[in-house]
Design brief:
Blueprint: H1 2-29, H2 34-71
Length: about 70
């Protein structure tokens, strides 16, 4: 009886170890490189800067047009 219990315990541990190896392999595949993250961050900064510039130009244009209309 104890031998059967020991065999079941060993098989269970072996199965867990195999699953752990598979999880590690899938984790390695899903890693994100730091350089990729930095390049995405720089792209997002450029987009945000461009949208801020466009918004500023629109605001200055609206104020200028409003000023011209009031001066007439």
């Amino acid at each position: 009886m104890t031998r059967k219990w020991f065999n079941n315990l060993f098989m269970s541990a072996e199965y867990k170890f195999e699953n752990h190896e598979q999880e590690l392999k899938s984790f390695e595949k899903s890693r994100v490189k730091l350089t990729d993250l930095l390049s995405r961050l720089n792209q997002e900064k450029k987009k945000e800067r461009n949208s801020n510039i466009a918004l500023s130009i629109a605001a200055v244009s609206a104020v200028t047009v409003f000023g011209i209309i009031l001066s007439l």
